[in-house]
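new request in #modeling-help
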Amino acid sequence: MNGLTGEVIAVHPFFSGLRLKHLRILAECAKKATFGPEETLFREGEPANQFYLIQKGRLVLTAGEPAQSWKIIDTLGPGDVMGWSWMFPPFRWHFTARTVEPVVAIELNAGHLLEAAETDHDFGYELMKRVAQLVIHRLQAARKQFLGKECAPHDAPGLLPGNLA
Amino acid sequence: MQTIDSLEGVIETHPFLFGLDPKYYHFLRGCATMRRFAAQEQIFQEGEPADSFYVILSGDVALETVVPTAGTATIQTIGSGQALGWSWLFPPYQWHFTARAIEPTEVVAFEAAALRDKAEEDRDFRNEILTRVSKVLVNRLEHAKRQLIDSIA
């Protein structure tokens, strides 16, 4: 277990309010991940097994194929969290994630998270509650895009409900 | 002779609520009412407190929002067998959109406060409801995504 990774998780707003034993579970499922520029982290439709805390760099979430008709749903940067598809059937990515600039992130193994959630239902609830908020954020971003509203889906680091109000 | 409570039966067999631990159906019946909306009648308005949760028995419901300079836009249409409303489960418990019956629509409405209180005191109920409502959210997101992609063409 990487101490530095654990520290980042412990102070990250997304995990605010979690008990120490739950923070430990998260740290145990985590490792550092780096991606170069214009690198694809995952593609829409592929099996989803990761959750990311972005620390440096920028990436976009896109939908649609082929490449010419990609629509950017959201842009993510330092402080943002990414990945909810691993928690709900069909457990496949709903979007494609591609770096704009090199990205450094903490990557959590979703399989381990789900196993831990099975054993500890409180942990499962705390995870799902937070991940649902992430889905809400994506939903509002996608709807705003569709409706053509003036939208800045990435106003500030972190994806807490307060930022959506 | 025992009276069969038809509302409880309706709740038990609704696709969204099907398969819950049987002990919860009596509780749900206690905070539920059957409601009917006429065509074009508003069910709830964006921005208002989300104080009810609905499951649709029959009819069609449009989820709408107001777009400045363009008027009302329909985000999605949902119907029989589906759940209506997720904002009641997540702070700030305010509707993120307006719901309007497109045709005569029948729903079962549950008091959101009672559901939230139950979730506070009963973890199994809490987890079950969160899981089911989260799947509604994923459905909405999938729909929004397809809509966005289709709108490019």
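bot summary: The first helix of chain B runs from residue 6 to 13.
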